[in-house]
Amino acid sequence: MKQTKRKQNMAVFGAVVLLLAMVAVLSGPAKAQDLSEFEKRITVFTLDNGLKFIVLERHEAPVVSFHTYANVGSVDEVKGITGLAHLFEHMAFKGTKTIGTQNYRAEAKAMTKEDKAFLAIKAEERKGDKADKEKLEELQKRFEEAQKEAQEYLVHDEFEEIYSRNGASGFNAYTSWDATQYIVSLASNKTELWMSLESDRFLNPVIREFYKERNVVMEERRMMENNPQGRLVEDFMASAYKAHPYGEPIVGHMSDIQTITRAEAEAFFKKYYGPGNLTIAIVGDVQPEEIEKMARRYFGRVPGGPKPEPVETVEPPQRGERRVVVEDLSQPIVIIGYHKANINHPDNAVFDCLSDIVGTGRTSRLYKSLVKEKKIAIEASGFQGMPGNKYAGLFLFYAVPAKGHTNQECEEAIYAEIEKLKTEFVTPEELKKSKTRIRADIIRQLDSNDGLAALLTFYDVVTGDWRNLFKQLDDIEKVIADDVQRVAKEYFTSKNRTVGAIETTTAEKL
Amino acid sequence: MRMKKSFLMMVLIFLSFELCFFVPVCHGLNLGRQKSYKKLKFPALGDIVVPDVERVTLPNGMQLFLLEDHELPLISISARIRTGSVYEPADKIGLASITGIVMRTGGTTSKTGDQIDEELEQIAASVETGIGLNAGYASVSVLKEDIDTGLAILADVLMNPAFREDKILLAKVQHRSAIARRNDQVAQIAGREFTKLIYGPDSAYARHTEYATIDNISRDDLVAFHKKFYYPNNVMLAVCGDFDTKGIVEKIEKAFADWEKTDVQVPAVPQVNYEFRSTVNQIHKDDIDQACIRLGHIGCLMNDPDYFALIVMNRILGGGFTSRLFRNVRSREGLAYSVFGNYSADFDHPGVFYVGCQTKSQSTVHAARAMVEEVKKMTEEEVTDEELAIAKEAYLNSFVFNFDSKGKIVNRLLGYEYFGYPPDFLQKTKTNVEKVTKADVLRVARKHLQPDKVQIVAVGRPQDFDEPLSVLGAVTEIDITIPTPKEELPAATDETITRGRELLAKAVTACGGAEAFAAINNYVIKGDITMTTPQGDMQVPVITTFILPDKLQQVLDLPMGQLKQVVSQGEVWMVTPQGSMDVPESQRKEMKARLFRDFVNLLRMSDSKELSVQYLGKEQAAGAEAEIISVTDANDNTVKLFLDAKTFIPLKQAYKGMTMAGPGELEEIYSDVRDISGIKVPFSTLVNANGSKQGELKVSDAKFNTEIDLSIFQKQ
């Protein structure tokens, strides 16, 4: 999956391991002729309100996967509300006006009381030392009472429960810098259940249990902070990006999470969850005509609206190398990133070949040099796609030093490999191998409903056409050794570089 | 000999279940309307005809499970070999894992591992091997046109691994690095230590590698381990993909034709004898603000007749968003982002029952209690109809996903066969889950859950917990310090001991004499440490104060403020601008060792009975000929002293200790030795870690027996 977060049990976008999964998603094409094979089984339609559906028939087993791709990620936040895209993802499991409540009207009144008390607390707390303690206590009490009242109307976790008892598999959601995605698979006879629930989710969402869920997200943030690699990635991105929101953490800053209001979450939903900003892929044992009929019936009722603007901020060129160090009791690791263009730039195909040559498998240059020959690292690789693909991202190199070796040794060894890319051509064998592997990789990704649904929405939204899943092959075929050298020279400069490292501190070593 | 065992599994998905609590309202004619989910009626899901898996036993005894899948032009093979880390000796933990890795990376008698890498990656294929707890694995993934290459390599690595030394070394480096990193992730610590509590630290199901067990493994061990288990009649293959069954069986038979059947006796896996008990265990990890908790006891085997009711109980207690743990600990109390619980069952040894969460330090005990309470509730009263219905429907309605890929089907069948379960075990499970009642759930909860006898482990900052963990029971501190490999010393003889003592006495004489040393009460050394970091050299002023024999204070002026480290009568702590704090166990040991190794202190206590000394030989060191002796203290700290063969003044010392990248070899090389109040003191000390420079101490001033403010050794 993309560099995203799982609803449970997985640290957000932290572990470098997770970042690596990116490579698989991005490394592209099968055979160009597979496109025509696929085109026969794909039906695309767009509702009047702008909601787009991509339906792929796959009758291997009586199951179906649904993938809702909301074209909104943490990049769409502004300062002060960081973490909101992700918080909203959590809220999207809390139900609707009819699901998750016994009496929506009464519940809404109680929630208004909650919000009032919360805003009053915020206002009083802003006074700092001069805040009236008694008043705060009183407000806190009122807040808790209102919360209790709202709780009384709750039907706990009804949304999850419906899916669970209907045998849903892989029911989950992810938030990344680029997007928020909601996924679930069901036995194919339950298609209408999904239609009913998912359309209600985006037609009548209710942001209930808001303050409680914020606490859960705060724990999630702590979990990320307690992961040394999570700490590194956060600081690294903040150094690499000073203007573009790719530099902000998906999970948000603690103080922002603490102070975000329900009204802000509602406004965010209104702006970014209009049907024109959603794309849905349905893959499995389905009949497209039936799907279209049902989709019009259920999703047709969602009112249309203006499409939100994309992020306009462009990251200015770096003026020199940037470095960030996380001092930690944990073991060392080093990441080196170079700014590059987004996925739609013609150089993307070159970077795909490059990442295969330097970073994929035991015959890749970094593995051979750092792990097999020099034995200074236990892992070393290079890949693109972080933090995202919609906007200009990074090409990342990283190494995990072997016991007894340092980040510095690994960093130097990586630079030596980069230097070789600039001064020598990659061999015809390397280039051929990379193209073969990229092609085979995509074939291997076509074997599951949920994987296909993820790919189709990703390529359709981010590159403008799902066909690019196959068409990018043509660009990759055209890559020659000169391109690889040109790209290495152009992008892999010290000025364009950010280096991040975990340096192990042990007090007795000082 | 071929036998085809055909079993057609008809899987019925029951629709009758889901409407049992929602009142169905028929709006059958109004097809144009959106319906609330409660009013939906679903069409029947067709019967799933599970494809026949072809079973073939080759003449050499290898068992094949085959299933054609023509959707994509791919073929995958997964092999299972009856072996496992449960069969490795206790002093060579890691042997199975390293054997499994090097079988592939170390190449075969005809090709190096690197040549195999090249060959496979050119065709975007993979062949991998490994050995886990109770099985060995191998896999092949190829585009169908490359199946001959894939099969040939699979056969070669299984039959003829060469175990080349360079790749053994690489695998050992990776294992040692994993040891060094094993305390980085809090959840990993909690899981590992909890497992040791349940099965016992030396159990084959819980034990783990140490530097020493990795060091003990030789190439001969790998060869012997392979030879013991890898025979065709001890191997099963699951084959799935775009092939014609008859054709591929011939290919496989040909590829493994030279592999001969051998009589191989693999003993049963070890038994587990669990004694239920309550324990409370605490692990200090200071760099996190959440606690990670695990609590529970032993679980059961999958062939336990209660297994089916336990599946239902599991879903109610800890299975996903609708479980009691999730609702009560996460959703209602907002205590944790992640909370989980499972009564696990394994094929061939009892699983564990555990519940756990990661929560902010200030909620630790509260969360632990809340979780125990949920376990207790399971044993006190029947679950509700609603809970039972949700749990059973969730299982039964998702049953179809057991059949959504052909690879899953064929591998599952192989797994059942491997562990001696009937091929229709899944189907039986379903039938039995359907029959589970509320009374069954209560009965198995009472029989299998023992909330009063759970073992608890909490990793975090106990100083920040809401209540001391001791409110839950007597607390045992678990030390997770990674044992550094001990200095391997030759067996001492009377001769080497005498010679060692003599040399040490000569060193004392050369550096000022026993009397002068005995007169030292304290000394203060001022200077600068230059540390080598990736950002360049960093200079830090340092003052070290010793009161002999057991007090040491080191003050470092770091850019972020002053850092003091104190050792006083066995206690170790640290004072930062934020205040005083305890240090992790590993650092405590290291600081005490540091006191022992000090140039002056070591010579001063040279005639102590607690030290064992022996002579090791002669070697070149720091450009001169050196006599080497080892000195070991009562705490098993060992240091090697290299004495100038002519003057007997120490040239350097070497020891195993912590480096920036984990445990390693350190050495301190002395120069610029000056005479201060009749005592020799090195004014320059170069510190090397694993052969490369880590830092240098330049002394600017050294004084003996001065006035010292004793309050610096009082903990604030």
Features:
heterodimer; A: 510 residues; alpha+beta; Cytochrome Bc1 Complex, Chain A, domain 1; 2 domains; six-stranded mixed beta sheet; five-stranded mixed beta sheet; 16% strand; globular; B: 716 residues; outer membrane lipoprotein receptor (LolB), chain A; 3 domains; 13-stranded antiparallel beta sheet; 19 helices
Give the end-to-end Cα distance of chain A, rounded to a whole number of Å: 42 Å
Number of strands of chain B: 29
Query: What is the residue-averaged pLDDT of chain A?
Result: 89
CATH topology of the largest domain in chain B: outer membrane lipoprotein receptor (LolB), chain A
What's the helix-strand series of chain A? HHEEEHHHHEEHHHHHEHEEHHEEHHHHHE
**Radius of gyration of CA atoms of chain A, rounded to a whole number:** 24 Å
According to CATH, the homologous superfamily of the largest domain in chain A is Metalloenzyme, LuxS/M16 peptidase-like
The pLDDT mean of chain B sits at 88
Q: What's the CATH H-level superfamily name of the largest domain in chain B?
A: Lipoprotein localisation LolA/LolB/LppX
Derived from helix and strand composition plus strand pairing, the structural class of chain A reads alpha+beta
- Overall morphology of chain B: globular
Low-confidence stretches of chain B: 1-31
CATH topology of the largest domain in chain A: Cytochrome Bc1 Complex, Chain A, domain 1
CATH architecture of the largest domain in chain A: 2-Layer Sandwich
Multimerization status: heterodimer
Task: Give the number of DSSP strands of chain A.
Answer: 11
Q: Using the 3D structure, state the CATH architecture of the largest domain in chain B.
A: Clam
